[in-house]
Amino acid sequence: MPTQLPSDDRIALLQGTLDLLILRTLLFGPCHGQGVARSIQRQSEEVLFVDHGSLYLALQRLEDKKWIRARWGVSENNRRARFYELTPKGRAQLAEKTSQWNRLTEAMARILNAAGAQNEEV
Fold this sequence. Notes:
- It is a single chain.
- The chain is of the alpha+beta class.
- The longest helix has 34 residues.
- The N and C termini lie far apart (41 Å).
């Protein structure tokens, strides 16, 4: 089990990034909001922290766009909760956003690696 990072070392998520992570999490099946937040935190080895206010705004935004849908159910601790699931439109967005994210991170890596090489030459 990964060690818990101090809260200062956790990274807050930007809106578009959070949307992408929510869509990716729901690819594996329906989940309630708290479960989505825990999954993102766990899969990032406790580096990414999802603020609950941001999470529920993002879930509402994604539902408004018809990328996810929600239904009421009972959570594993017997509480009433909204379970979110990916729609076909959401799957298409996940593929598109993942491709965009991959292009962005590759470009950033090229720039950062080139900058490091230049700094070493100086």
